[in-house]
Amino acid sequence: MFNKRTKIKALLATEPAGQEVTVMGWVRTFRNNQFIALNDGSTNQNLQVVAALGLLDDETLKRITTGTSLKVVGELVVSQGKGQKSEVKAVSIEVLGDCDSEQYPLQLKNRPSLEYLREIAHLRFRTNTFGAVFRIRHSLAFAIHKFFNDKGFIYLHTPVITASDAEGAGEMFRVTTLPFDNPPRNDDGSINFKEDFFGKSTNLTVSGQLEGELAAMAFSDIYTFGPTFRAENSNTTRHLAEFWMIEPEMAFYDIEDNMNLAEEFIKYLIGYVMSNNREDLVFLAQRLADEEKQLPQDKRSEFGLIEKLIFVQSNAFERITYTEAIDILLNSSHYKKKKFQYEVKWGIDLQSEHERYLVEKHFKKPVIVTGYPAAIKAFYMRMNDDGKTVAAMDILAPGIGEIVGGSQREERYNNLVERMEAMHVPVEEMQWYLDTRRFGSVPHAGFGLGFERMVQFVTGMTNIRDVIPFARTPKNCEF
RNA sequence: UCCUCAGUAGCUCAGCUGGUUAGAGCAUCUGACUGUUAAUCAGAGGGUCACUGGUUCAAGUCCAGUCUGAGGAGCCA
């Protein structure tokens, strides 16, 4: 009958009137042999459980240490102490699971570092910081489904295993059942994938977009939200080998509609978290402010976390073309003082330093850049009338960089084939994709939002490994 | 993958231009106290100085390599 218990979040929201309650959770601290700070993950707030002197025998008292799980039955009463409104006066306390304090690595008074907590990712959920981060991560995931559901989008499950490596979005993880010490080979020595499980070479998906486009050509509006895999040897604060991505795809949308949707989407997500995870945001904002106090003045951010979110939510994103972006960079004093490490000229891919200058120094808010040179963008992006640029859009966020990448898709069969050939994409293997352009093709567009980057942006966590429960990065696949 | 920095007690760190038995705070353990808020007070235990090799009378400290981590770059979401 565990279901009779009340969660601490609900309990703290009710008026204390001496009513009997059952609570269960894990001990955060045990003060003065009397006061147990109990947490069950429903909220960052701890519940104070008071074990009156004499209630417990010495044996039981000794078992109550940080990390121990308890079942407490008692009365919800007005607290006599100052730190909390209400508390539970225990009638009985049962130890559900002991926690050996000599072995338990999470003594919270030690202020463990984020790096250390990553090594004990199975326990870090029990900290205030990660409690807040993962409750917000959940809220964002829920808000994503709500946003699209309310707009009549279909949630499409695109495959995790794919045969196409055509998108060129990065290095892929191979999926195979062939013995790697002695695989079957062709006469020329290459591996014979006809013998493999699927009868061809297969990989983990790097994007669900192409499949998403197929469904959009029937449902009008779809979105995907699933895991994505990139085998890049990236060691940065914003890359993972396994991450989650949201990819909406909309028929009868042009690049303008696409930008409008993406901006509305991001603002909606921020608004949702601000009204549903206030307490967690306040905690993270405080954490961030404390952390920034350690930094030299010029490295501190202008806004607190919540001010930043309000600002982003209530101001229009700046929209500029790639060509305008290059002009801004070329005319900047930063450029004239030769402070950019990389060359700036039309045709280059914008470097991190360029994006950061535009977003953090020049506009100081999210920027949507459109109209990139065709040569530096993917084959499926729609060629503009100038014949040089494509209808691509990247949304750059302060502190994170590229958070959204999208485009209007090339819906004209001949133009698409031409682009594929120019970029050496195997046309024959992609006929299933090209067929959508043969049978009732329509203008359409879509984008990809990096879920973890969005969680980073909202929580202010600076390392992407701290916003996913179990991070997969080069040389790290624990748990 | 490249560049830079780091690895000393369970955690966070100090340890100077190489020199006796490697320190602190917190945690842990023992005891005291008992309306505490990261409870407090007293005492105790706790170390392969990442690993391998080298230089030296002598290495936590200097050198080389390896591993791991962090930050930045590239790739991108």
Notes on the protein architecture:
This protein is 31% helix and 22% strand. The chain contains 14 helices and 16 strands. By secondary structure, it is of the alpha+beta class. The strands form three sheets. It has an eight-stranded mixed β-sheet with strand order 6-10-11-16-15-14-13-12, sandwiched between helices. Strands 1-2-3-5-4 form a five-stranded mixed beta barrel. Strands 7-9-8 form a three-stranded antiparallel β-sheet, with no helix packed on it. It is globular. Helix 4 crosses helix 7 (278-293), helix 4 crosses helix 14 (451-459) and helix 6 packs antiparallel against helix 8. The protein has helices spanning 8-12, 58-63, 114-119, 128-150, 209-219, 255-276, 278-293, 305-314, 322-331, 333-336, 352-363, 413-422, 431-434, 451-459, and strands at residues 19-31, 35-39, 47-50, 69-78, 86-97, 154-155, 161-162, 174-175, 202-204, 221-229, 242-251, 318-321, 367-373, 389-397, 401-408, 444-450. The two termini are 31 Å apart. A hairpin with a 7-residue loop joins strand 2 and strand 3. The protein folds into two domains: 8-104, OB fold (Dihydrolipoamide Acetyltransferase, E2P) (Beta Barrel), CATH 2.40.50; 128-171 and 206-466, BirA Bifunctional Protein, domain 2 (2-Layer Sandwich). The relative contact order is 0.11. It binds one RNA strand of 77 nucleotides through helix 3, strand 11, strand 15, strand 16 and helix 14. Pfam families: tRNA-synt_2 (PF00152), tRNA_anti-codon (PF01336). Keywords: Aminoacyl-tRNA synthetase, ATP-binding, Cytoplasm, Ligase, Nucleotide-binding, Protein biosynthesis. Its EC number is 6.1.1.22.
